[in-house]
Here is the input.
Amino acid sequence: MTAAVPLEAVLVVAGALFCIGLFGALSRRNLVGVLMGIELMLNAVNVNLVAFWRYLEPRFITGQTFAIFIICVAAAEAAVGLAMVIAIYRNWLTVNADAVDSLKG
Amino acid sequence: MALFLQLAWLIPTLPLLGCALITFTPLRHSKPASGWTAIALMLLATVLAVGLLAASAQGLALREGQVVSLAGDHGAEEHGAAGEHGKGEQHGAFAFPEPNLVQRIAWAPTGSSVFAMGLYVDTPVAAMLAMVTITATCIHLFSLGYMAANARQSRFFSFISLFTAAMLLMCMADNLLLFFMAWEIMGLCSYLLIGFLFERPQAYRAAIKAFIVTRIGDVLMLLGLVYLYTQAGSLTLGVNEGEIFNPAFLERIGAERGFFGLSHATGIALLLFCGTIGKSAQFPLHVWLPDAMEGPTPVSALIHAATMVAAGVFLVARTYPIFLADGGAALGVVAFIGAFTAFFAATIAVAQYDIKRILAYSTLSQLGFMVAALGIGGWVAALFHLLTHAFFKALLFLGSGSVIHAMEATPAIERIHHHDEYAAQQTAQDIRNMGGLRAHLPWTFWTYTAGYLALAGVAPFAGFWSKDEILADAFKGGHWIVFSVLTVTAFLTAFYMTRQWRLVFFGNFRGEHPVVFENPEAPRKAAHHADEHHAGHQEGHGIHWHEDPTMTAALVALAAFAVTAGFFNLPFAIPGGHWLSDLWGQEALPFSPLVAGISLLVALGGIAAGWTFYAGAFTRAGDADPLATRAPGLFRLLNEKYRVDELYQASFGRLVALLALFWAFIDQILNRVIDGIGQITLFVGRFNFIVDDTLFNDGPDALAGGTVATGKNTRRAQTGKAQDYVGYVFAGVVVLAVVYLYVLRR
Here is the structure.
């Protein structure tokens, strides 16, 4: 199976996934959409880690452990992020990312 | 008596106080009050001065606060003094009497030593002080009446008081620097008083002329003082070590040669004598004195006849040991200048019409007598003539003032006065317009006659004795040229004074049709001719003649001295004879009947010549002078004063004008240069401005502006939108990745 699908192909998929996530995170007006973009980027990294583990060092479980950690972080991040979205909505009555520019100072 | 010695310092102080009181207190608003204040203080000073003379005549002296008596009688004192100082043998018979009073105060510390100045009174000074205070008091009194019509009479009293203070201080000065300071204060007062009627161009021009001409002499005199100081290291009068009459010092400067092969003594003496030439108006600096008659008449009497002009003679008398130090080399010049001036001025006086100018030239002539007397060694005779001349010349001037005062009240002149004050005064002073005043002004006539006889040299009036003594000195010393010149001058003196006296006081009054003075600077209001026609109806007896009582009092007082002053030094060996010679500790001249006879003959001859020559002359004011009809060329030359003024105008005046032109040219060039420097400075300034503006001003401005603009631009990046920031972060990551992959990995 490893021979049928080369590592490069998997990396390209992960890269594409990351770029899609990045694009979503940067261009979505909806904060929920932004969070979804971030999830996509994290999962692209997961794909990367799992691919490197499988193709380069299958004897160790380092890659899988990293991936599990990232999934945990992503879950926590989603919880915190959605909580922030709700808090922002309560304050600004909007979830439009462009309207939330109070960092401007 | 000793009190007078202790109070001697008050003598110059009192007139000074008068000046201060009149100038600085409300007294100045009252003309009589200021006048009487000045007169009272002058009277007090006169009492003190006469007392001082009496005390010094008794041989009293003040030594360190103690009154001591100088050696018994004056003859012994002289021999004692001469023997003690060892000068008598060295330089003829001349030695100063011992001082009666020397008071010094430390004036200016000059590092190692102290420059002291103070008072130095010996018997000649005491006699001078008495003369100055008496004449000054009389003249103050006279001014009370004479100047009453002038709005600035208080100022006049202030000035003449200041002048008197300076003159007294000069006589008493114990060193030549203080002497010079007082001398210059007198010069200032002379300037102020000649120009007292400063509304008249002639008056202020005369004042400036007097100031500048005397300044020429004064500068040279100052050089002489500096020369003396470099030699002696001191200017203090006295015979002690370090003082200028120290015998050893005099011997040294008499022997050592200085500039032009002259001994130091001669050089110093000649430079000092230049001061005399200026101040005593000797030829060739005599031109200022006749013009000084533009001042009010009391000023002419006090300053330009009795005192200030005599200061030059006094200077030579005071520094006489220096003149003698070289065996009298400088005295030849002194005698020549004196004799020449005496004759020169007397000839001019013959052909003048202005009553005051005649007296002014007479003053020049008499000063020439004194200077000539000093030049031939007649020290006592010169000072004696100075004293008597002061009295009778002051009297003559005051008398002329009284005459002018009366003339100005005549209708013809009052009419001129309406449109030209100056022409009126000049017309009033013209002796051609007078005549017959004997009947109208009796007091003036009799006192004037006393002064006239004294000046003409008729025994026993004052002028005879002093003039005779000068002639006797010349005769005895074998100075034949001086003797003959002075004798001729004495004749001329009697002649021109008789002419004046006769034309003023005798004959018929000619003032109804006066010779009107043509004033080149007349205010152009009315023509003279219109007035002259009206004058025809006036008669002499219709004029209100008057003599002011204060003026008369002053005249009488001075006349008393003009008659008696000669008796102070009678040439006879009787008790009281040679009184001044003895008082001054000098050898007395034996009486010479031959010289006295010549002198009297000459005087009477001059009077007779004048009387006959001018008999019947001037029936009308417009007549020609008899001398002018007989010798028109000579008369014209004399009348125009040998054209010396014109000569100076054409030579020095033109030279100065040329110099002025030259300096104006230099000034133009300097002007250009300075303009150029200004231009360059402007250019540099412009350049600096540009540099400053662009580099130091615009530079930081641009920096600040750039910072602000950068800030403005950068601010836009801070949108506050999280997505933008993330975008930057990833951009940074991309950049780092590129750097890492393509730069660092190589």
